[in-house]
Amino acid sequence: MFRKVLIANRGEIAIRIAKTLQMMGIRVVAIYSPEDHDVFHLRFADEAYPLIGTSPKETYLSISQIIEIAKVAHVDAIHPGYGFLSENPLFAEACEQPGLTFIGPSPKVMRLLGDKLMAKKTASQLGIPVIPGGEMPGRLDRNEILQLANSIGYPVLIKATAGGGGKGMRLVHESKDLLPAVEAARREAKAAFGDDRIFVEKYISEPRHIEIQILGDHHGNLVHLFDRECSIQRRYQKIVEESPSVALTASLRNRMGEAAVTAAKAVGYTNAGTVEFILDKKGEFYFLEVNTRLQVEHPVTEMIAHRDLVEAQILVAANEKLPFIQKQLRMDGHAIECRIYAEDTTRGFVPCTGIIERYIPPDGPNIRVDSGVAEGTFIGVDYDPMIAKLITWGESRRRAIQKMVWALQHFVILGITTNLDFLQQLFNHPEFVAGNLHTQFIKEHHDALTQQFIPDEAILVAAFTASQHGKHESSQTLTPTQGIKSGGPWDTLFGWRAF
Amino acid sequence: MQQFFLKSVGSDSLFDVEVDPAGKEYPNRYKIKWGGSVFQVEMQSDGKGDGILHLDGTLLPFYVVQKKKSFQFWVKGKTYTFEVVNRVTKAETSSDLWDNEGDIRAPMPGRILKIAVDVGDLVTPNQVLLVLESMKMEMSITSPEEGEVVLIPRRVGDLVELGEVLIKLESLDG
Predict the structure, then answer these.
(1) Coil, strand, or helix at residue B102?
(2) pLDDT tens digits, one per residue of B4-23
(3) Which residues of A are catalytic?
């Protein structure tokens, strides 16, 4: 077993991985950027090494620096987390040296599946259904793209060949919007993955996003840990994930699980991975892609399967056998995760920056909070604006939702704008409760989800706070407002009047 | 008795509020009035801003943080931002933040990825003026009207704040 592992990541996932490593008696090595304002993950490490540089590209994405630190710190293995270098075969390759192990699949498998078109082709050859019209050569010029989209038929979805997470993804309804969307998608793909290749495929309307968690060892044992439904998305990014999906019957779940295992076995998959599918309104599923890493939403699987996926990843990477076989795995109850973001849900979900001044996460039976922030943390523009993941478990979906609503109502985050209120409205929405989910859910119910209502208690607290303001600060900070003309909301002075 | 105009940031609703302490005998009791509503409440405050509101027999804890020009608080599971405004600004604050004629402002904090126009350019409605990037998300800023670009205060790579002027346009019909 490893004695010391480097976590090539930051934020909540670095903390989540560190916890399991330490529980297994393994020493944790952290890395950090000197420009990173949120290095809360260092509090969960045994050793920490600084990276040189300013941008994420120069630091958390620097293969050479991370390998150098791994050598200096004498670590046995590197866990990449998700994002950053987690799906970069060059990084996995760089870890292939005496005494060092990459905790993930082999670079060969990552390269094959990281190319979304190659992955689709592989799945199709195995008899797994793929989205129609998606088989396109990698690099195309503008005219070819136009022709291609016309031949598939609108609406079409543009996707980055090198990665997912919504980066470089654009939905196009008409040919006049195609070229600007292609240009933006290329730029975004280049920035996110260092690879500007994109492809076009038929857009399936109101689909569900269903994925299967897989785990394989180096001794021929490969299992799936059931499904997750991640249909609630905004900007092509998941914000709510649950397991199991309400859309799957036992037989459909088995078929999808078998398809995932077949595909994974065919390419010699090891360690943790996720096979993503699209499920259309008729209940037909199509292979989408394989994510060759631990997913953000892995906790819902951990909650219903009662397994620690990170622990399994580490065991497998250390060449041990998976501690379970398929028939030992059972689904128990229902788990839901939602992602708490620093964003303004009333203005197109734009990211918000600022300092977290108050942070009181909820706690209680079967409530889990995976987070990488604390009071005083600065949320900047250089990293993902996810503050925390909130996960609840219940015997039924209904109980899991009730717990989620309670937990969201008891999550206090002040100082920045978050999606906490939006999420409460989402979990209270009758269509969500009924399980009628699809990837356009938020767009379709946007007005109901972003409705603003100011109840009496809010005005009472606001009035009381305003009346107390002068009592806590020197009178100089209070400006008499009479006669002062303001130039607009930016110049509005905090003032009061006494009668 | 104190009187305030409270503005809810985001919804832009204005409340003309009166706060009347019940007196020395009942130090935590207040009569709070707005519109046609009158509430007699008890406010248990920790003296630093946080506290518990007693409303019709129900306990409602609240947490408050002061910002530069506003205050943000949490009560009964929801978060609100309010600011105190005066009569003079009452009319003006109801106008939208982005309505300052000719100013194209940043709808989110971020980095300028691309500037697609030059000073002196004539632009048409919906023309892309520049591209902002924040947390790997791209947003194209388009022109709301026909006009001439008169000022581009920032350069590619610059970090801009929410609401900062990105481009000044001069309307052609003016």
Answers:
(1) coil
(2) 899 999 877 899 999 999 98
(3) 293
